[in-house]
Amino acid sequence: MKRVSTMKRVLLALLLVALVPVWASAQDSEYSKGHGYVYFAPGFATAEGESAGMAHIGGGGEGFFTRNLGLGADVGYLAPFRSMADGIGTISPNFVARFPSKSGDGKVEPFVTGGYTLFFRSGTANGFNFGAGANYWFKDHVGLRFEVRDNVMAEEGTGHFVGFRIGLAFR
After folding, report:
1. pTM of the model
2. 30: in domain
3. Do 96 and 71 contact (CB within 8 A), yes or no?
C-alpha cells in the first residue's frame, strides 16, 4: 500500500460518520432524513486467483437530501478469519439510493450504494465499493440491516472483499 499521511482523511471520515445521523435526526417530513447502523459481515476475499474467508465489522450512517437520494459513510475493520490481527481499516464515503415501499408502511426499505473506499494500515490504498440491501424497520427507530457489499482494492492488482452484512439500524 502507498505510504501517505492519512490522519486528516481519517478524522474527516470519522466526523462525517458521527454527524450524518445528527443531521438526519430532524423528522420534519413524511420520510426519514437518515439513520445510523452497525454491522458484522462474514464474507470472502479474492485476489490473483486466491481466496480466503474474511470478516468485516463497522458502523456508519446515511443522510437523505431527497426522499430517495443521499450520502453516507462508514468505517470498518476487515480481517481474515485465520488471523484477525492482520486486518486493515476501511473508510467509505458513498452515494445511496433507497426505494421506499409503495404500500406506505415503510417497514422494508431496499437500497443501493456505492462510492470510494480508503484501505489503511501502515499505508493506504484506494478503491471503490458497491452494494445493495434492505433495512427492515420492526420499530419506529430500530431495524435490521441486510446488505451485500463488494469493496474493491484498485491498487496492487485488483482485490475484492465481498461481505454479507447483517446489522442493526437506528434512527
Report:
1. 0.80
2. yes
3. yes
